[in-house]
Design goal:
The structure is a homodimer of 418-residue chains. Chain A contains 15 helices and twelve strands. The first copy, chain A, is an alpha/beta fold and 418 residues long.
Chain lengths: 418, 418
């Protein structure tokens, strides 16, 4: 979230740069989103201050569970999804934190499982280097397993609460998990009785082979970087094939840049890009794993150099998306930057343009929904809720009200409920 | 907090046993406390479900930072103090969590530093046994040092936020901490700019030699188990002598059991004790480190057996308080149980009785204030706020309104502000 997903957002918007530390800012965004009946607020998490975070507000600066907990008591329906790393947390603490928030929000919580690919983080947790990609994913697989077992450790009717007979809980229905694995030994049970969703909704965003397999095994929702319809369809089909017996919703990220006219949208986009300055080029270099001076705006990405980086340890999804655009369309770095650095799908246009694209992706089987990456907050969000949502509603593609009481129900997930 | 500090509270009160999982319950308590201008809400933390927690609601079942974050947005002045263990957390995560909540609450956060003495916890974090007492305290000392350095890693004016000149932060004013110690290696800086209090208020409750030294070195507020005026005065004098150049506020815990008359208070107490049943005896056995069947209600604590337990690894403060009452007053186990298991000072009487005792302890130098351990919530709290506070106000011993904007200011702590 930060102050908007565009790197120039903090300079473009009206409010102060320090708004990303202000509870009123978050409350305002949450209220707009809930009034519009959006499914959830989704927050990133950043466990290190990298150089780039001194040049613009950091998307995941504040602890996302803390932010969402403050929002739980000023909202009543919208989902609250926090990113949290399996590499730099303990499963008992994490399971307890999400179960606590699931109780206090009435069943509206989701956990976006990440393994953390930012190298700077390791040095804040006692290590010179991040664990290797496959080590992180092995730990993540076991971590999610432990957390799920802890969430299940109280049976539904374990809490009796009969004052008369002095029976608070039924010991037979509260069980240790006795997990002993390669990474964790956790006895359990959790301190927290079963929460409204039992298991908070599991989000994931792995695009690598390890990431897809973990998602297929454990995720309810997969958040993915896709910038062409065909690749998005393939990705969704691939994930569904890997999880034939599980429900998995696939949500590509999308960056809508909306104007009253296309020209107006283009002006917004160009002004944002101007304000972002060199930030986008630096970000692209990090995303594809090459030095920034290896990128010439007038030439395509140096794919040989990209592929030569065999130590690449960052997001496979972002790199693959940028490489794909370069290969398939032969775009220059400048064009890539213009198209959101080759990352999430960007739609620059009117509300009708955005609605058309989203509807098309949805009906073509490229998406079960979208993770909105709002360019500038709160302004870009109201452009979406006031402009795009009525058009989607008119086509029967978006609900008029929340259909259920929990995030799981509102996402149409029928499995995994209590 | 739970549903009240008395072990019989959940059966005595009107509400449901599951209220301790309900956000409306916490909001109600917070509003009563804030309307009365109490300084802070103080929450325990429990990282394991012990057998006893199947017999009554667990005081620290929910993650306390999550609970307090939900309360931050429905309160505006009251302090929010969460207990969190230095043995089972990472300093970077903890520093970031508290700094985040300090921002989102406008500077109302405190951290109660504990090393965790409950043996069951270790098994939820990969170890058969808790680290030894002195190991835990060495880690705690270094942990607090790292956290404080992280809180200081952004200078006050580091966040510039000048959109025009594209200067978000001043890199020269945001510094790595480069900590390399026996337990932690943490580079920093924190992802979060300096929060309103800079350093959330540090609470501590160590009563052992190690605990007192850590408190003298790092705590702003010391929460202590004291059940005689003389011992409380000695403790406070001892701590102040250990910290000659630092401000340290000493707050003994106090359990007021308030009735309209003394007879009424006694009836409340007896009914609570009856409802608690054997729980109090079991709790006392754990607190002093002997098997429950070694306790005979009609005889004093078996002090030889208590002293023979050289592996004692639980709260030194609780054990010392129970031993002291036994030694000084020769009380039986039954009398000890009646007096809150020899733990925190218990006052059974009218609001005037409670006000008299608190005023006496305060004016005698036994306390700078008190940590209220309310018997039954919310009822016991309103008895205190409506009965006792007006009497303390009439004597000029309690403020009519919050004097400051931050918890640090409201506690009268003048050092350590930004």
């Amino acid at each position: 979230m930060g102050l908007g997903m565009h790197l120039g957002a903090w300079r473009y918007r009206e409010g102060a740069a320090a708004d990303y530390l202000d509870p009123r800012y978050y409350t305002e965004i949450a209220r707009i989103a809930e009034d519009a009946k959006l499914h959830a607020i989704f927050l990133a998490d950043t466990l290190a201050l990298s150089e780039e975070h001194l040049r613009r507000p950091n998307l995941g600066a504040l602890d996302p569970v803390v932010v969402l907990a403050t929002l739980a008591s000023v909202t009543s329906k919208i989902g609250l999804v926090a990113t949290m790393s399996t590499t730099f947390n303990e499963p008992y603490n994490l399971a307890r934190r999400f179960a606590s928030l699931d109780h206090l929000s009435g069943g509206r919580v989701g956990w976006n499982v990440v393994t953390t690919f930012v190298p700077d983080v390791a040095a804040n947790f006692g290590s010179a280097n991040l664990p290797a990609h496959d080590d992180r994913y092995r730990r993540a697989g076991e971590f999610v397993e432990v957390v799920a077992a802890l969430w299940d450790s109280w049976a539904e009717d374990a809490l009796i609460g009969d004052k008369e007979s002095d029976r608070f809980a039924d010991p037979a229905l509260v069980r240790p998990i006795d997990h002993a694995g390669a990474h964790f030994a956790v006895r359990g049970p959790l301190t927290v009785p079963r929460s409204p969703q039992r298991r908070p909704v599991i989000f994931q965003a792995g695009a690598s082979e390890d990431g897809r397999n973990l998602a297929a095994r454990t995720a309810d929702v997969v958040f993915t970087v896709q910038n062409t319809l065909e690749a998005a369809r393939e990705f969704r089909a691939d994930l569904r094939a890997r999880a034939p017996r599980r429900e998995v919703k696939v949500l590509p990220g999308v960056v809508p840049i909306i104007g009253a006219t296309r020209e107006d949208a283009l002006r917004r986009k160009e002004e944002l890009d101007r304000l972002a300055g060199d930030e986008e080029l630096r970000k692209l270099a990090l995303r594809v794993g090459v030095p920034v001076d290896a990128l010439d705006p007038d030439r395509p990405l140096p794919l040989e150099l990209v592929r030569a980086n065999t130590d690449f340890n960052a997001s496979h999804g972002f790199r693959a998306a940028a490489v794909r655009l370069t290969e398939e369309e032969g775009v220059t770095v400048r064009e890539l930057l213009y198209r959101n650095g080759g990352g999430h799908l960007q739609i620059v246009g009117t509300a009708a343009d955005v609605a058309d694209t989203l509807a098309h992706w949805f009906t073509c089987g490229a998406a079960d929904g979208f993770n909105l990456m709002i360019d500038v907050l709160p302004d870009g969000l109201t452009r979406f809720t006031e402009g795009v949502l009525p058009l989607l509603r008119a086509r029967g593609l978006f609900h008029d009200d929340y259909p259920g009481a929990t995030l799981r129900a509102n996402l149409g997930l029928t499995q995994g409920a209590r």
